[in-house]
Each structure stands twice: as C-alpha cells, then as structure tokens.
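hey can u check if this looks right to u? its 131 residues, i copy pasted from the old doc so theres a chance i mangled smth
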Amino acid sequence: MPRRARLTDATVDEVGRVLAEALDRPTKTEREFQEQIAQLARQFGWMIVHHGGNQHRRAYYDTTGFPDLLMVSPTGRVLFRELKTDIGSLTPDQERWRRELLNRHADYAVWRPTDWVDVVATISNGKAAPS
C-alpha cells in the first residue's frame, strides 16, 4: 500500500512555488497548455495518453471527439480531460463524449488556461512534486 504524504508547511510552500512558476508562463495555444499539463503531471507520477488528430495514427471505432487527455494517477484515479483555449468551444462529437462519460460517472472536465489553479490542485492533490 502506498505511503500517504503528510501536508506540511514545506509541501504547501512547494505547491505554491510550482503554481507561481506556472502562472508566470503565459499560455497561448492548446498545444502549449497541453505541454504544461503533461510536464506537471509527469512530476507527480501520472501516466498520460494524448488522443490527437494526427493523420498517421490509427484510430479505431468511436474516437472522433474523444477527450484530449486520458490521465491515470499513481493511486489509480482516472481523468478524461478535454483541453480548450480560453475561447474554444466543444464540437458536437466532443459534446457527445462529454455527455456519455458524465452519464457513466467518469471524471470528465474541460480544462482551459484560466483553470490553471484547478489543474495544479487536481494533479498535485495538495502534495509537493517529488525531487
């Protein structure tokens, strides 16, 4: 069973530092935002799958509109995250995936650069990144 980390003043300070650094980096595109999320998630031991529209990848079945990121935490929490710019909107296929995942009680959300504080809180779960 994994050891639970205790939230200490040092941990809070570290999370604050990571947050402050992240907030200092302006995000302009969905791709840059995705890279920021991936970098942070890797620091906390998450596994990440990006489902993109790359024409060289093989896609099977109902993949159109599938969320951008499928993320699995070290404790087994599974997240489906659609990434959008601050002004981007979901396509009808993305709306269908959103509706179907939420109907099945999946942990689904749309993340935008303006949600960065929530992104950090979700990924870090109040813990400092390992050294």
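The mean pLDDT is 82.
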